């Protein structure tokens, strides 16, 4: 059966959310029982046809919500009824959480009611009217079609729990306005950026959960007017002189520094934004993370900034557009610079003691062998040298490391340390050698 309800997809809710440090958090967790609602399929079609009856009855019984046909209030009520019914059918069938955008819609409606100077009486009455319309249509349908009492009971229980969830969003939005009626979007967006950046950066333990608390993030996003996307991509841009133009859309969060621009944007906007950034000037390098959930935005920002640094250090090739997905191993290996340096001093001590030229050629030969386990001729072909040169180098490597090269654990460790260190050395980073020399002079 087709769903022929009138739709108002072009209706826009123009209510702006406020900034509020102490606001009650929006809920965004699964709210129903862990199994599909019994009998839902029998009632699905009738539920999906209730939007117009609900809208008509609410406008008839709540004088404040009448207004002109097709007016802003009429469109907003229709939009809320459509979205709530669609979401319930999906939630009850799949046991999914309440959609984030539906929570935002009801939260904004509550805030807008308070902004208009009204208490919660109209909101409460509208919810009661809507539930009464649903109840009457479902019971009439159940009687006409000889549906079981158990199926109707389970459906009503799920609807009541769903109603309570949406009611909580309305009340939360309404009470937020009472605590902070002055909305400063710039301040709210700065606070949201700081929240996202700090949410996953600097995790002190693998036991700490990944990502932000979803409810906290949703509340901050609502205050900042940021439509939370399903997938987020972090973009880092290095530039000289005049900064790049900022994307003029609420969907993109941005932070501008003296020589870098940081962006968080929906995954589907990445192509356009990267194209605009690279086309507007030739001296810009753009780093793009892979898509993550919004709760993991801080990690994506960290990867993009680390990639910019690794380009500067010579670890990642200096292309105009750098995609983190092409350099995941290096991003991982350089996640803890001090740990890499410590392991370098411990595992590569024999190489660090060699002369600069000897150190470079021996390290390159050893890493090639560790990664390929090829024969001397094959390694020679990779390094563009004579096979006898490789054999000579290999004798020296065995003199330096001896039986340790037969220890699987040592081989894994030295492979990772060399892979992360050799490109640094080739890029001119001398800090490992300076530290080695200083430690030797200090007798450590």
From TrEMBL:
It holds the Pfam family PucR-like_N. It comes from the Bacteria. Residues 11-23 have a biased composition (Acidic residues). Residues 1-10 have a biased composition (Basic and acidic residues). Residues 1-25 are annotated as: Disordered. InterPro entries: CdaR-like_regulators, PucR-like_N, PucR_C-HTH_dom, PucR_C-HTH_sf. Residues 362-419 form the PucR C-terminal helix-turn-helix domain. Residues 43-196 form the PucR-like N-terminal domain. PANTHER family: CARBOHYDRATE DIACID REGULATOR, DNA-BINDING TRANSCRIPTIONAL ACTIVATOR ADER. This is Uncharacterized protein. It comes from Nocardioides marmoriginsengisoli. The lineage of its organism: Bacteria, Bacillati, Actinomycetota, Actinomycetes, Propionibacteriales.
């Amino acid at each position: 059966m087709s769903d022929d309800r009138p739709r108002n997809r072009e209706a826009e809710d123009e209510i702006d959310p406020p900034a509020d440090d102490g606001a009650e958090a929006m809920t965004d967790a699964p709210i129903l029982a862990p199994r599909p609602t019994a009998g839902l399929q029998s009632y699905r079609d009738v539920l999906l046809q209730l939007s117009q009856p609900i809208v008509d009855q609410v406008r008839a019984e709540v004088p404040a919500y009448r207004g002109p046909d097709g007016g802003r209030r009429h469109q907003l009520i229709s939009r809320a009824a459509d979205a709530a019914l669609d979401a319930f059918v999906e939630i009850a069938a799949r046991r999914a959480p309440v959609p984030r955008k539906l929570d935002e819609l009801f939260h904004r409606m509550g805030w807008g009611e308070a902004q208009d100077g009204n208490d919660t009486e109209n909101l409460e009455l509208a919810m009661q009217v809507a539930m009464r319309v649903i109840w009457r249509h479902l019971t009439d349908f159940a009687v006409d079609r000889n549906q079981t009492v158990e199926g109707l009971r389970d459906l009503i229980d799920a609807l009541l729990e769903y109603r309570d969830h949406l009611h909580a969003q309305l009340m939360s939005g309404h009470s937020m306005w009472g605590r902070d009626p002055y909305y400063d979007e710039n301040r709210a967006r700065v606070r949201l950026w700081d929240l996202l950046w700090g949410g996953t950066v600097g995790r002190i333990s693998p036991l700490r959960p990944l990502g932000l608390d979803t409810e906290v993030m949703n509340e901050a996003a609502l205050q900042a007017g940021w439509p939370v996307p399903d997938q987020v991509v972090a973009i880092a841009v290095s530039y000289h002189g005049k900064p790049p133009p900022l994307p003029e859309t609420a969907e993109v969060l941005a932070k501008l520094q003296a020589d870098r621009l940081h962006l968080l944007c929906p995954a589907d906007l990445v192509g356009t934004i990267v194209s605009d950034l690279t086309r507007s000037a030739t001296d810009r390098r753009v780093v793009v993370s892979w898509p993550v959930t919004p709760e993991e935005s801080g990690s994506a920002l960290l990867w993009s900034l680390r990639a910019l640094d690794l380009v500067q250090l010579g670890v990642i090739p200096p292309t105009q557009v750098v995609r983190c997905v092409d350099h995941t191993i290096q991003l991982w290996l350089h996640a803890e610079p001090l740990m890499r340096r410590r392991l370098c001093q411990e595992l590569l001590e024999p190489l660090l003691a060699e002369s600069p030229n000897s150190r470079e050629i021996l390290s390159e030969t050893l890493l090639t062998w560790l990664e390929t386990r090829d024969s001397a001729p094959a390694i020679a072909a990779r390094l563009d040298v004579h096979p006898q040169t490789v054999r000579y180098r290999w004798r020296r490597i065995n003199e330096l490391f001896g039986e340790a090269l037969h220890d699987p654990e040592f081989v894994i460790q030295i492979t990772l340390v060399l892979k992360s260190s050799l490109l640094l050395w080739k890029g001119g980073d001398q800090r490992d050698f300076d530290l080695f020399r200083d430690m030797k002079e200090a007798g450590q």
